[in-house]
Fold this protein.
Amino acid sequence: MSPPQPRPHRPTPGAPRPPRQPILIAPTIVRWILGVTVGAHLVRMAAAMGWLPQEAMGRLFLTLAFIPARYTHPGAVETELPGMLISPVGHTLIHGGWLHLLTNMGFLLAFGTAVARRMGPVVFLLLYALSAVGGVMLFAAFSPYEITPLVGASGAIFGVLGALLRVALYPPPGVAPAPPPFHHRRTAFMFAGAYLAINVVMTGAPALFGVDGGIAWEAHLGGFIAGFLLMPFLDGRGRPT
């Protein structure tokens, strides 16, 4: 006669269920960045269809886009000062096509949600902006006289990815790890590998993603390095109390 088997535990009728931890409910700051970026793309599309003044929109586009030659051409500061000041971060609002935009925003939701939960909205926005700046700085270092506009939020998102992998690789002792599904190194690297693979394909065949011109891998690398190095200083749960 086999020993009696333990009965599975069943919740008491009427008892409250334990709360479930959301996996992808983005913090407000992530949703704001996504909304503003998508809105900027819609405005650009409206201008391309003739619904908005194309000349004014064209000037705005060039002001937001990052052009390294602005910083190396003699006398450019007299005519290009707004672009010189705005474009290191403003270029994240412009994308080469819908697929380019949706790819970046999808990974912003994944990576940004995990990172933004560890810090306040202002600090996350600072990380996002500094990663974008780090990306264009490395791009300009490799191509200081480039006149082709650099656009897209990939550098900033690579910075958020770098920050996330920093927590996954070197979790601060005594504090909460990165939230699921990034709390295991293997999972974090799977998501990072997927994003990297997409960007490699985009670099080799940008037309498949509706992107005009090439992909600036230097900006991706610069953003990643910036996020990876900045995370210990910005991580709200990584600093001792």
